[in-house]
Structures are given as C-alpha cells and as structure tokens.
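Friendly challenge for the regulars: who can give me the structure tokens for this chain first? No prize, just bragging rights.
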Amino acid sequence: MDVSVAGPPAMRAPERWLAVLRIAVGAWFAKALFTKLSVTLLWGFLPVPSASDRWQHVMPVLVGKYAEGNPVAFFRDFLQNTVIVHSAPFAQLTALGEAAVGLGLVFGCLTVLASGVGLFLVLNYALAVQWQGSSQQGFHYMLITTLIVILATRAGRTWGVDGWVRARRPGWWLARLPLG
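First reply, four minutes later:
Bragging rights claimed.
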C-alpha cells in the first residue's frame, strides 16, 4: 500500500517562498534609491544616478563613529585611513551598490551576482558595527544568512528575469552564466 503524504500547501512550492524572500531583501536594499541616491546631470544634459549630498555628508560621520571604538584593529584602520579619507567615492560605491543589489534581487536579474555583492556589503557593515550591541549583530547575521540562502538556491529562477531568460533562451550565453 503506497500512501503519499503531501506536505502543507505552503511548502508544496518552496521556490515561491524563496522568491518572496528574495524580493523582500531586494526591497530593503532598493530603499537606497530613495535615501542615498539622487540624479545628477552629466555634461549638463545626461541624467546619471549619484550619491545624494545628504549621504555624502552623513556617511563619513557614521563611519567615524563606527571606527572610533571598533575593536577589530585592521578594520578600524581601514575605516579611518581609507574610507573616511576617501569618503566621496565610498559614498558613491555604497549607494550605487545597494541600489544595484536591490534592483537585481527584486527583479531576479543576475541573482547570484546581486546576492554576492549584497553579502560583501553586509559583511563589511557587520564588521563596522559588530561591537555596538546584539541588536546590530542579530540584524546583520540574519541578513547574511538570508543572502547566503538566496545565493545558494538561485532564487531568481522563480518570478525573476533569470528564470525567464533560462526558459525562453536556454542556449543563450547569458542563460549559461552561473550568475543567475
């Protein structure tokens, strides 16, 4: 007698829940579009995204506060001697990086690359604030774990551009890349 027991309805399609998780984490990163980015006119007519003036002024102050009591010597030195000294390019990189990760995860486009870059960003944020308290640590550990799950399961293949490209053009070079 063969009796198959079906799991709860929600777990019959776990890839959909991974897609929901991917979109939620992507939305958290994509908030950089509104909080850290503005549009600048390059050569007076070409609109390009850039770090907002507010973010360029706030970022070095935050980094200075994080570096001040950081017990991880190499990272404290990196923050004080590199990030604060060159705060404008680092403000651009963090703002554009968070926005790119957010858009990549929300739309499921190059999900492995987006979650890898997000993991790099969050690991650096965690190193910067890990000494401040357990609430900071818990948030970053949860985000690190979530990004590892998204990266390992290639969650962009469900409800994402990665899955759409793979289904419609399986032989295309972009579909064969291990980035989605």
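Strands lie at 37-42, 46-51. The chain has a mean pLDDT of 87. Your move, everyone else.
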